[in-house]
Amino acid sequence: MNKKTAIFAVMLFALGWVSSIIYAGIMSSFSPLNQPVSTQGSLVDLQKLQGSASRDKFSPSNWINNSQIYVFNDEVVLKIKNAKWAIFTDTKSMDPVIDSTSKAIQVIPENENDIHVGDIVAYQSKYENGMVTHRIIDIGHDSKGWYAMLKGDNNSYPDPEKVRFEQITRVVVAIIY
Length: 177
Known about the structure:
Blueprint lengths: L2 H26 L7 E4 L2 E4 H4 L19 E3 L4 E3 L4 E5 L15 E5 L12 E5 L6 E12 L2 E7 L16 E9 L1
Antiparallel strand pairs: 1-2, 3-4, 5-6, 6-10, 7-8, 7-10, 8-9
């Protein structure tokens, strides 16, 4: 192979490589996962809300340490401060994790630093009567301060409001079936 042929082959390879990168970038901008979704005036990246294109999901943060759990032959003891008992209505929004037959132990968060993406919280919605229990999928700050975006695990779309810390009443720390 002569020098001109080698240079031509390298340039052709480089051109093909660059064009494939450009094509991939253009095509990914048309992917439904990258289309922004309007949620109360903000744009949220749907891929971020879903965790990723994979089946990976957000998990709750660690609220109970091993030192707080005592398992005996005849009982289980959980040492949790400010524990509250919860039962749920059958809205199907958190299936299969939470259903009408589920029971839970919840705690009252002290401040927004207690709340993490993946936590399941109960909050007073501006759009629904009663409490809503959904998973936090994003946390941010805007001109009004701290907020969380939530979504029911079984719902297709996020809840339609930015939830402020003052709306969050409890955090699920244990689900009992």
